[in-house]
Write a structure and sequence with these properties.
- This protein is an all-alpha fold and 197 residues long.
- It has a single domain, classed as Arp2/3 complex 21 kDa subunit ARPC3 (Orthogonal Bundle).
- It has eight helices and two strands; from the N terminus they run αββααααααα.
- It has a two-stranded antiparallel ribbon with strand order 1-2.
- α2 crosses α3, α5 packs antiparallel against α6 and α6 packs antiparallel against α8.
Length: 197
């Protein structure tokens, strides 16, 4: 009888632990979506460029570095789903439209690129690179180049090939490199802080 109770207690504990784990994952995803949304609203318009500079990439890089690939991709996908459902989570929403119509607009390529950028940064974190700012910066730069390429090509498709560099890449190079450097340092700094505490 005691063995049965012990086994039952273990099963209940396992279920409770599992429930707590998934609740924590859900909270992390919700927090990440909120952080990316807030970052998307902090923008510096670059006229006549239809895609303003925001703090979005900084938020995404930081989340991916801290979460790892699976949780980070789940977060960015939840963000995309929320936007596709018509929630005003993207830059310029609701003023510039909502839902799938907005996602097919000028920022559509960057949104698609965010998913790849998130995965590559999170994958680097899975391999422990998030503890080294130089390795993390390299992974982030790879993701950044892919994201900008997709975004610029989509911009060129919508507005003409002459806009690929002028609108799609040029305005973001310096600012995104700064955000990349900040993000590459944030998570390693936090790891070191936790080690000391």
């Amino acid at each position: 009888m005691s063995i049965s109770l012990t086994g039952q207690s273990f099963a209940v504990r396992t279920i409770a632990d599992s429930s707590t784990k998934y609740l924590m994952y859900a909270l992390c995803v919700a927090f990440g979506v909120c952080l990316i949304t807030v970052a998307a609203k902090i923008k510096v318009p670059l006229w006549p460029n239809p895609t303003p500079v925001t703090l979005q990439t900084l938020a995404i890089f930081t989340i991916a570095s801290a979460y790892g690939s699976r949780l980070a991709v789940a977060t960015i996908m939840a963000y995309m789903i929320a936007g596709a459902a018509g929630m005003p989570v993207f830059t310029g929403t609701p003023e510039k439209g909502l839902g799938l119509a907005y996602m097919a607009g000028p920022t559509g390529g960057y949104l698609a690129g965010f998913v790849i950028m998130t995965y590559l940064t999170g994958l680097a974190a899975d391999y422990g690179w998030s503890k080294n700012p130089f390795k993390m910066a390299g992974a982030m730069l790879t993701g950044e180049v892919i994201m900008l390429t997709i975004g610029a090509l989509w911009m060129g498709y919508l507005f003409g090939s002459e806009k690929i560099i002028a609108w799609g890449v040029g305005p973001f190079i310096v600012t995104d490199l700064i955000k990349l450097a900040i993000a590459a340092c944030i998570v390693p700094a936090l790891w070191n802080l936790f080690k000391k505490s």
